[in-house]
From TrEMBL:
Keyword Kinase in record: yes
Residue ranges of the TM segments: none
Domain PAC: 92-142
Domain Histidine kinase: 192-405
Protein name: histidine kinase
GO molecular function, one term: phosphorelay sensor kinase activity
EC id: 2.7.13.3
Taxonomy, superkingdom: Bacteria
Organism in which the protein naturally occurs: Filimonas lacunae
Keywords on record: Coiled coil, Kinase, Phosphoprotein, Transferase, Two-component regulatory system
Coiled-coil residues: 133-185
Catalytic activity line of the entry: ATP + protein L-histidine = ADP + protein N-phospho-L-histidine
Family matches, as Pfam families: HATPase_c, HisKA, PAS_9
């Protein structure tokens, strides 16, 4: 950068000529007013800026160049400035407007300074038309707003994408867990099937071999005995397979509840009669009912529940034990309970009683799939019911179902 050259005033014959040159040819509006707010001088740039002819502004109040809506405030500000004159540079952040002779408005930037001439207090105003700058600022604001909108939209889209990604991740995790559960289910099925199927299949095989040996009429009773063993084993296998099929349908949501009207006492008494063939010597099943006997539910699902609970009560109760089934029907609820005098269930085991394949720790030596109570709980849930268990080890168990209408 070249050093600043000293100001050469030799081209001007005197100071007045220099001032006149600045005043007349400046590319900024220069306006001089007295302490009454009257325009004393306006340079050509100011006159052209506001659309007035030469000398037309002289003697007019400065408010003629200000929009009328600001007149009252401006008079107050002007008087305050006259009482406490202090130079005010441009760019103090105030939005000011000038008004042309034709009434059109435009944004301006004004700086003020005071000057005392003899006994006169004068104010010199430098006026810039900042229309282009305001348009540029407005364009920048518009672009910033547009950018902010785009950023906001992009942020929203990213949030949506993240939400969808999280949902997809969650769904994938669920699918993986479901697949893992399915694989575990298959593994447990194979393990259980190999164990539970072995005994009845061995019974069927041995009984079939023995049947071939009993060929005479006198040996009919022996043939009958082995035939019954085969039938019993086949029924046992059928029950196991039915349990697996039921669990599969439940998991797939393929169990449809079909409510119909039926007599509850007739249904339960019929089940008790059917289960007499599996009762141990001396076992008794008692049944008591309170309330109306006509019920609207799915009789097939309810029968499966009762058969399972009674079968378990028979299986886990000793000979000569009494098994009690009770039912109560009101306007709002149907309550069913099955009480046995069996081996009971520990508190620890009760917490897992309705899980798939769960076997109580004291029932490992008794045949079972661990699916029955799981199916019972799911069937009850499908019919707006809940099941609970109250049990003491070696004293028996009571299962209670409450169906709400």
């Amino acid at each position: 950068m070249q050093p600043t050259q000293p100001l050469n005033l030799g081209m001007f014959s005197n100071e007045k000529q220099l001032v006149d040159a600045i005043f007349l040819h400046a590319s900024v509006g220069i306006l001089i007013t007295n302490d009454r707010g009257e325009i004393v001088l306006a340079n050509p740039f100011t006159q052209a800026l506001f659309g007035y002819d030469d000398g037309e502004l002289n003697g007019r109040k400065i408010e003629i160049l200000i929009p009328s809506r600001y007149h009252h405030k401006h008079v107050h500000h002007r008087e305050a400035f006259s009482n406490h004159m202090q130079n005010r540079p441009m760019g103090l952040g105030m939005d000011l407007y000038g008004v042309r002779k034709d009434g059109s408005e435009f944004p301006v930037e004004v700086s003020l300074c005071h000057y005392r001439n003899d006994d006169n207090n004068l104010v010199i105003a430098f006026i810039n038309n900042i229309t282009i700058r305001k348009k540029a600022e407005e364009e920048i604001r518009r672009l910033n707003d547009e950018l902010e909108d785009k950023v906001e939209q992009r942020t929203f889209e990213l949030k949506e994408t993240m939400t969808k990604l999280e949902e997809s991740t969650e769904e994938l995790a669920k699918s993986l867990n479901k697949e893992k559960e399915l694989n575990e289910l298959k593994s447990r099925f194979v393990s259980l099937a190999s164990h539970e199927f072995r005994t009845p299949l061995s019974t069927i095989l041995s009984s079939t071999i023995l049947l071939q040996k009993y060929t005479t009429t006198e040996e009919q009773s022996k043939r009958q005995k082995h035939t019954e063993r085969i039938v019993s084993s086949v029924n046992g296998l059928t029950e196991i397979l039915n349990d697996f099929l039921s669990v599969g349908k439940i998991e797939e949501g393929k169990i449809a509840v079909k409510p119909t009207t039926f007599t509850i006492t007739r249904l339960i008494n019929g089940i008790i009669e059917e289960l007499k063939t599996i009762q141990k010597p001396g076992q008794q099943i008692t049944y008591a009912h309170e309330g109306a006997e006509t019920l609207v539910m799915d009789p097939t699902l309810l029968k499966h529940i009762v058969v399972n609970l009674l079968s378990n009560a028979i299986k886990f109760s000793p000979e000569n034990a009494t098994i009690a089934i009770n039912s109560t029907l009101t306007d709002k609820q149907f309550i069913l309970s099955v009480q046995d005098q069996g081996i009971g269930i520990s508190k620890e085991d009760q917490a897992h009683l309705f899980e798939r394949f769960f076997r109580a720790s004291n029932a490992s030596n008794i045949d079972g799939t661990g699916l029955g109570l799981h199916i019972v709980a799911k069937y009850a849930e499908l019919m707006n019911g809940v099941i609970s268990c109250n049990s003491i080890v070696d004293h028996g168990t009571t299962f209670t179902l409450v169906f709400t209408f």
